[in-house]
Amino acid sequence: MPSAPIGNFDNARPAPDCLGELTAPVADAVRQWRGGVPAEQLIYVDSDPEIADTAVFVEHYGQELLEQSANCVVVTGKRGGESSLAACVVLSHTRVDVNGAVRRQLGARKASFAPMDTATGESGMEYGGITPIGLPADWPLLVDAAVVDTPYVLIGSGRRRGKLIVPGKIFAELPGAVVIEGLGAPAA
Question: Which positions fall inside the YbaK/aminoacyl-tRNA synthetase-associated domain (predicted)?
């Protein structure tokens, strides 16, 4: 069994060997992977769903993960009565600049976090486990440049149980990806 490149995990395996542990859209994305790194470099780590939230997670699996973890959030952009969904990926110790960078990038008058039911229903993933790998291909995927520059990133697996550890550079290759400097603002 390979060891995880970051964190203290007892169970780390190549994601293609764990398709049954992933939600359908994530498993499909891994199965059809055509990225610049082999799919075997996408590592699935089993984790306790009760401690999936970042602060508790890093306390249990390694404090260094705070600098190497990313969050994927779903946002809604509204303009002229029209509304559209997008996803944003930022390092966990930052927050998404929804009212600035996101709103401008989407050309929206207003941008906000999507309601949980919308985010989970439209993505096919569980709240607290949404990942950019396997999101609808027609969604814009806004990725903070700092995520792409991180050698290995811990991100959701589509479920609250389990995470993926992937090379940061793959986020720039995902469908709809736009890399934005400053998408993640320092947390207040």
Answer: 49-167
